[in-house]
Write a structure and sequence with these properties.
One of its GO terms (molecular function) is ATP binding. With 326 residues, this protein is α/β, with parallel strands linked by helices. Helix content is 34%, strand content 23%. It has a 6-stranded mixed sheet with strand order 5-6-7-3-8-9, with helices on both faces. Helix 5 links the parallel strand 6 and strand 7. The mean pLDDT is 90.
């Protein structure tokens, strides 16, 4: 079966800035594929290259069996990250307008119901809340009942209840056979919706797979966080590794320790250990690794590799300049 989305070694540069540096991805029919990654990683540029709104400098992309610029736009739904429809139209009027761009569009009132805005249908766009506006924008990408849907951070600014409405809508679309590619910074969103997740960092896909496989391979171990000012050294004879939590940039948290790779059944043994040694603590919390742990681990590795490359490049430039003046 031919992939609905196929990109191989896509490259895109804006002046001296490299947005994509060999990004490759494949999305199967009916699949929900989520792109995650830091700001500036190239997610939006990749979506633009896949939807034909920007021309890559290198590599190859095909969607629905054709070049992105040649595909029938009626089969494609696109919600960009930045989208500003006319403010003096109501939510319903906006959907009627976008529906009018297609020969066989859905009923705008049905789309309003899908995004949970039946009661706000006659409200001007400019008078809707930010979250309601974003839901109208989601609806505008659905009026043509697309075979392939691109959503660039679809739930940004939407309240938790509205976010769940959009999540259920995406799940229903996927169940009905729509292929969905979405970008998000919300790891819970990616973990709930995506069949597969790709982490984009420094312009390339550094890891992809099911959320469960990514967590298994990159998420690390389970952990018990103990809220205590005690130094990790006092846990020297505990059978588990104990350390201060890392809060980035080489800094650690001073009022907690983390016990690594521990099962819930062993928490009682840690409590007994604390009490037997009169180690004061104010709380305990146990957690399994999740997609956020994967994101932080892989994004951190990619950032360190990028920094190393930049530093090596600077060193080589210094050596070159020194050679020129010698």
């Amino acid at each position: 079966m031919e992939a609905v989305v196929e990109a191989t070694d896509l490259e895109k540069r804006y002046g001296e800035t490299t947005a994509l540096s060999g990004a490759s991805v494949s999305v199967e029919p009916g699949e929900v594929f989520s792109l995650i990654g830091p700001n500036g990683a190239g997610k939006t540029t990749l979506v633009r290259a896949l939807t034909g709104t920007t021309e890559p400098d290198g590599g190859r992309a095909r969607i629905l069996g054709e070049s992105p610029s040649a595909v029938d736009r009626g089969r494609l739904g696109v919600l960009p990250q930045e989208f500003s429809p006319p403010a003096r139209l109501s939510a319903r009027e906006l959907l009627v307008y976008y529906a009018g761009l297609y020969d066989d569009a859905r009923d705008p009132d049905d789309v309003l119901a899908d995004v949970g805005l039946v009661d706000a249908g006659d409200t001007w766009y400019e008078d809707l809340s930010g979250g309601q506006q974003r839901r109208v924008c989601v609806g505008s990408a659905l009026v043509n009942d697309p075979d392939l849907l691109f959503l660039d951070e679809p739930t940004t600014g939407i309240d938790p209840a509205g976010r769940r409405t959009v999540w259920r809508l995406i799940e229903d679309l996927a169940d009905g056979g729509t292929t969905v590619v979405l970008t998000t910074h919300d790891m819970a969103e990616a973990e709930r919706l995506a069949d597969r997740v790709g982490l984009l960092a420094d312009g390339t896909i550094v890891a992809q797979g099911t959320p469960e496989a990514l967590v298994r391979d990159h998420g690390g171990s389970s952990r018990l966080t103990v809220e205590t000012a005690a130094d990790p050294d006092v846990f020297a004879d505990l059978e588990y590794a104990v350390e201060r939590p890392d809060r980035g940039r080489g800094r650690t948290v001073d009022d907690a320790v983390v016990v690594r790779d521990i099962d819930p059944a062993a928490i009682g043994a840690v409590v007994d250990y604390l009490e037997a040694r009169d180690i004061g603590y104010t709380g305990l919390s146990w957690a399994e690794p999740d997609l956020e742990d994967v994101y932080l681990t892989l994004a951190d590795v990619a950032e360190r590799e990028r920094t190393d490359r930049l530093e090596r490049g600077a060193d080589e430039s210094d050596l070159a300049r020194a050679g020129e003046t010698a």
